[in-house]
């Protein structure tokens, strides 16, 4: 046990120093996709990836959430419909954005946020798509 504890502490400190944290205030605003960093290899999800290329995410002051794109597909239209009238909350400790309503426990969509030295990334676990984004 004495040997495991220092190893775990080293791993945790390495992970914490690698990524930088964002605050809810920094998340607040409109984000545009600049590139798709990682795509799901499933060809059925390719249209969704194409829609994400021109997507915009709006995290408003009053915690309203909106997503839009100029390249609408059936899958993206489904996302828009599912997130309509949704709110967002940001878990700073895990750098995770939860989207939904109080009634559904903010479980409609989740975005893991990662800030590297060069980029801010939005990672979607459900689709395995990672997007580089910039605040506009």
Number of helices: 4
Element-level helix/strand string: HHEHEEHEEEEE
Arithmetic mean pLDDT: 89
State the share of residues found in helices, binned by percent. 25-40%
Reported for the largest beta sheet, the result is: 8 strands, antiparallel
What can you see in these coordinates?
This protein has a single domain (20-135), classed as Lipocalin (Beta Barrel). Helix content is 26%, strand content 36%. The chain has 4 helices and 8 strands. Strands 3-2-1-8-7-6-5-4 form an 8-stranded antiparallel β-sheet. β2 and β3 (65-69) form a beta hairpin. The longest helix has 15 residues, at 4-18. The radius of gyration is 16 Å and the shape is globular. The model is unreliable at 5-17 (pLDDT under 50).
In short:
The chain is built from 4 helices and 8 strands. With 136 residues, it is α+β, with helices and mostly antiparallel strands. The chain has an 8-stranded antiparallel sheet with strand order 3-2-1-8-7-6-5-4.
Key words describing this protein structure:
alpha+beta; eight-stranded antiparallel beta sheet; single chain; Lipocalin; 136 residues
Topology:
Layout: H1 4-18, H2 24-27, E1 29-38, H3 46-52, E2 55-59, E3 65-69, H4 74-83, E4 87-91, E5 96-100, E6 109-115, E7 120-124, E8 129-135
Antiparallel strand pairs: 1-2, 1-8, 2-3, 4-5, 5-6, 6-7, 7-8
């Amino acid at each position: 046990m004495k040997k495991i504890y220092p190893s775990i502490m080293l791993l945790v400190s390495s992970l914490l120093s690698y990524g930088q944290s964002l605050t809810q205030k920094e998340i607040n605003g409109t984000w545009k996709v600049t590139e798709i960093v990682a795509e799901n290899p499933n060809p059925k999800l390719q249209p969704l990836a194409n829609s994400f290329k021109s997507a915009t995410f709006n995290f408003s002051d009053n915690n309203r959430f909106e997503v839009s794109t100029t390249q609408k597909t059936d899958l993206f239209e489904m996302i828009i419909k599912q997130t309509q009238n949704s709110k967002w909350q940001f878990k700073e400790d895990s750098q995770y954005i939860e989207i939904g309503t109080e009634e559904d426990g903010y479980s409609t969509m989740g975005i893991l946020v990662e800030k590297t030295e060069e980029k801010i990334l939005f990672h979607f676990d459900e689709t395995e798509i990672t997007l580089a984004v910039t605040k506009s």
